[in-house]
Design a protein that fits this description.
By secondary structure, this protein is α/β, with parallel strands linked by helices. The protein is built from five helices and 17 strands. The chain folds into two domains: 120 residues, Roll (2,3-Dihydroxybiphenyl 1,2-Dioxygenase, domain 1), CATH 3.10.180.10; 138 residues, 2,3-Dihydroxybiphenyl 1,2-Dioxygenase, domain 1 (Roll), CATH 3.10.180. It has a nine-stranded mixed beta sheet with strand order 14-15-16-13-9-12-11-10-17, covered by helices on one side. An eight-stranded mixed beta sheet has the order 2-3-4-1-5-8-7-6, covered by helices on one side. The chain is globular and about 50 Å long. It binds fe (ii) ion. The site of fe (ii) ion (FE2) has 6 residues, from β9 and β13. Fe (ii) ion binds next to β9 and β13.
Length: 307
């Protein structure tokens, strides 16, 4: 006999941020930063492409470093909830006449078939997939703790936390609305441009209980499709403070912080990957979302950087 959950079909859904593929002009410097300093495991390397994961991630990778001249983001990956959701999303995008590309399984090592498209409005390259290998770490890195794929090392980044992306003030409303209407992101907090109160300045959205898995902010320089930062989660506030000291001693460029966000209440530290120049947020703690719909943030009065 089928159960209610067997008969209930919620439609295709995003489960979580999965992996981000970034270009780096100097992959060795980027590996020094992400692997040797932040403590990620390099799971596999194929030519000029390296696949890394954090110590509490079981999947094959959450970060792909691709050696290339342009320091751009090649893809923002999201894992979907069910195997059939990849195709169901593709069908929906086709119905909206959004151009999609099927990325064959294994194009990113360890990952199944993905559908790639550009977010209408912001033009960020998103890729949705379900299947991901879960390889064991080598014996010398393997953890005895069942929730950890490897032993904690370096500064101890434990998982990819969120993406913060930018769109022009003229396009951000379209992009922000589209990801909410079509990918199931819930707007948890938002702020509007002070001089254009109908235009989104920043929106913090999630499909999980986090305040945000994806933030979208207006780029006042009229640049579309840009990354603001990718964020990695650490276990505690003190880990973020330790990271600030260690990274300063290693001459890693620090942007802002350490400090505590007004929105989300997490501890933050913004630094720059010395290989790619991408901004990376060290992120710890924070509230979970209790707001099913968005609320206007009063964070505009704060000097705190965006979460
Ligand atoms: Fe952030």
């Amino acid at each position: 006999m089928s159960t209610l959950s067997d008969r209930y079909d919620p439609g295709p859904q995003i489960a979580q941020c999965g992996s981000i593929n970034i270009g780096t002009a100097d992959i060795e410097k980027s590996l020094w930063f992400f692997r040797d300093t932040l403590g990620m495991e390099e799971v596999e390397r194929v030519g000029d492409v390296s696949y890394l994961r954090c110590y509490q991630e079981l999947g094959h990778h959450s970060l792909v470093l691709t050696q290339q001249d342009e320091n751009v983001v090649n893809s923002y990956g999201f894992r979907v909830r069910r195997p059939q959701d990849v195709e169901l999303f593709a069908q929906e995008f086709a119905a909206q006449e959004i151009e999609t590309l099927e990325i064959p399984a294994g194009t990113e090592r360890g990952r199944g078939t993905a559908v790639r498209f550009l977010v209408p409005g912001s033009e960020h390259p998103f890729e949705l997939y379900y299947d991901i290998d879960k390889p064991q770490a080598p014996a010398d890195l393997r953890s005895k703790l069942p929730s950890n794929s490897s032993r904690r090392r370096g500064l101890g980044v434990r998982r990819l936390d969120h993406y913060n992306v930018q769109a022009t003030p003229g396009r951000i409303n379209q992009a922000e609305q589209w990801v909410r209407d079509n990918l199931g992101f819930k707007r948890r907090e938002f702020a509007m441009l002070p001089d254009h109160p109908t235009t989104v300045l920043a929106s913090w959205m999630s499909v999980t209980s986090q305040v945000h898995d994806l933030a979208m902010v207006a780029n006042q320089d009229e640049l579309n499709g840009r990354l603001h930062h990718l964020a990695f989660n650490l276990e505690s506030f003190s880990d973020a403070l330790t990271a600030a000291d260690v990274l300063a001693d290693l001459d890693v460029e620090i942007g802002v912080g350490p400090g505590k966000h007004g929105i989300g209440q997490a501890m933050y530290l913004y630094v720059f990957d010395p290989g790619s120049g991408h901004r990376v947020e060290i992120y710890a703690g924070g509230t979970t979302s209790s707001t099913p719909t968005g609320r206007r943030s009063n964070g505009l009065r704060s000097t705190s950087p965006r979460a």
